[in-house]
Amino acid sequence: MTTTSTPVKDTVTLARGIRRRAVDMIAPQGFGYLGQALSSAETVAALYGSYLRPGVDRFICSPGHYIIAAYAAAAEVGLLSEEQLLSYGQDGSDLEAIGTERTPLVDLTCGSLAQGLSGAAGFAYADRLRSRTGSRVYALISDGELEEGQVWEAAIFAAHHRLGSLVVILDANNSQVDGPLDSITTIEPIADKWTAFGWHAMDIDGHDVAAVHAAFDSALKDERPSIIIARTSTVHGLDVLPPDADGHFIKLPPELAAAAREELADA
């Protein structure tokens, strides 16, 4: 079974690279989904650097706007070129700002939220029916998606079938377009809910790379479907952002983009 292949310190470097590339991707527009890349940088870095095996495993990016983090990680490990990456969000580019059915490098992404886990469970179940053993299905979902019932239907299905090849990374950044998640709908206690549904649930600091690696390793050893609840912040790793930055859709005027590049270059 796959275990950690990239040292933790390299995951830190990879996460910083994801942040730097995300800044470069949204700077031409002056705004975008930078917060999603900042919050998920460590988990996506660990996934692309240590666990995801292209051509063997599947990756589902459920919230389509998180695709920026996947693109940045793919560029860091050589799956996308610099030219491709810098076309992000441009007219005619394959790298759309919100993932669609045309999106490269991922097996599924959803513009309409909360559908990705259903697809991930379907992939895992299909792999079992086809005796495709040894492969894993990784699904990145967001805490805002827990407000929608389809997630819980998929969770019930996955637990019932004991889809142990399914590993969910939940980016719990407490941010959605209408404001802080906990001011809109209470979703806690998250881990207890998934455990009650029959999942192997781990609740960690999503910016602590040692904890992230330990969680992935634990997930790969458990026979139940696993969820890594990664507590994160949409401004983590970029101190130049103003205190009142809207983490869901960060504004990045040229002077702030320059400061961000300088901070990440010197980190």
UniProtKB/TrEMBL annotation:
<dbReference type="Pfam" id="PF00456">
    <property type="entry name" value="Transketolase_N"/>
</dbReference>
<dbReference type="InterPro" id="IPR029061">
    <property type="entry name" value="THDP-binding"/>
</dbReference>
<comment type="similarity">
    <text>Belongs to the transketolase family.</text>
</comment>
<protein>
    <submittedName>
        <fullName>Transketolase</fullName>
    </submittedName>
</protein>
<dbReference type="InterPro" id="IPR005474">
    <property type="entry name" value="Transketolase_N"/>
</dbReference>
<keyword id="KW-0786">Thiamine pyrophosphate</keyword>
<dbReference type="GO" id="GO:0000287">
    <property type="term" value="F:magnesium ion binding"/>
</dbReference>
<feature type="domain" description="Transketolase N-terminal">
    <location>
        <begin position="15"/>
        <end position="235"/>
    </location>
</feature>
